[in-house]
Amino acid sequence: MLKLDFLKKEHTVAGPGFNRWLVPPAALAIHLCIGMAYGFSVFWLPLSKALGITASKLPPEGMGFFAKIFSTSYDWNIPMLGWMYTLFFVFLGSSAAVWGGWLEHAGPRKAGIVSAFCWCGGLVISAIGVYVHQIWMLWIGSGVIGGIGLGLGYISPVSTLIKWFPDRRGMATGMAIMGFGGGAMIGAPLADRLMNFYASPTSVGVAQTFLTLAAIYFIYMIAGAMAYRVPPHDWKPEGWEGLPESKKSGMITNNHVHLDKAWKTPQFWFLWGVLCLNVSASIGIIGMASPLLQEVFGGKLLGLNLSFNELSTAQKTQIAAIGAGFAGLLSLFNIGGRFIWASLSDYLGRKLTYTIFFLLGIALYSLNPTMGSAGYIALFVASFCIIVSMYGGGFATIPAYLADMFGTQMVGAIHGRLLTAWSTAGVLGPVLVNYIREYQLSKGVEKAHAYDSTMYVLAGLLVLGFICNMLVRPVHERHHMSEEERNELQLLHKSPAGKHAHGAGGGIGAASHPIKVFLAWVAVGIPLAYGFYNTIQKAVGLFR
Question: Which residues contact 543 (CB under 8 A, 6 or more apart)?
Fold first, then answer.
């Protein structure tokens, strides 16, 4: 009988000589793979021509919804394909909430491996769905099963990284969650090249691309999961005795709150509102970034005093390339913001960091209509780059905020429960942006001004987020675990051999194995460099 003892949490406890800097690249290996969920729109146009190859084979008018789902004779439209994107983030949040508690007990390695099988298995099911032309297989494969893999993979390293880096919680989670933002930056251009390679007179190359990505991602994700280690109970970095007096505040607790109590506290729901409103205000704009820039500035992007509707087809093609560069530039700030803002929060404090997000965001959203009307392209672009950096920074800072408020004992499970805010924002944000725009256009508002009302509504969401953040207070001591509860629910055990040292002894976490650390970072650094190169190439057009 096959033994899987190596998956048990007690078998992942780090031993003497383990370097804590091996954990962030392991987390990045998983996040860079599942982050491709952001880039799935690269498949929409090819899949909409999966049967027609050069043009879509449209169904007859009046064909029912269910008939379209099971038809093998007509191509799918983009709204049908877009349900995969919605399912990704609905199941990311719901699976993280449902299985977050299990993850704390099972450990990051087991969760990472389950994530790999779900995410990559979903791609395989989707490839079969493309081959037999059944869209419900793509919804279930990538959307549902893959979405579950997203949730488990997303939260798998959070608790572990916070425990390895108690001295730099924000920086640690920022490094990992940066990878989720960078997944599409790597995966989208790679998928585009693979589809061109596999394309033939009888295939658009999507099924083969799904299978290739599944194989690549599976190798990376399994390697990342196997590299996870958890520190021994109460381990601290060598020479670190806790926060200095100058940084201690009532907003950082030395106690712990159980998941069952944490989600019932006002603090949890205020932080839920903080994340939901910060994400809602930006996620819809990110999805509309390219058309927004084109419609607001039109010919001004080419130095011409023409509106978007007055441009020729060739000119619209030119500004579409500029719009793509704008979207690429935003992705860079999304990624950079995750690391930079989260790292800054270690010095500023989480509450002040979010206060900056909300106040600065309110100001920028309120000024954007004026900048658009005045034709200040550079300022308009810069403001959205800052807004998107704070969107990414919000994701990376929230795990450290939770650890400050509820302790580290069950922070992974609490974070998983909180991610339902992301699922909510993933629906609320795009609906607000898209429907307000459509309403404005239906009332005869020019495209250049169709987003003005949206900006003020999004600023209003940030006002609500600011209020939620201001209401966050330290968790009352009645919610804290007792010492007996902590011992009973202790999630980190000694290794089977019982040889792992506690505290800073044994060199655990120290700077050993420099070659191994270097190679681990190279393994994730090369794909990141590839993604940055492709993204910067597209963004250059914005400044020509």
Answer: none
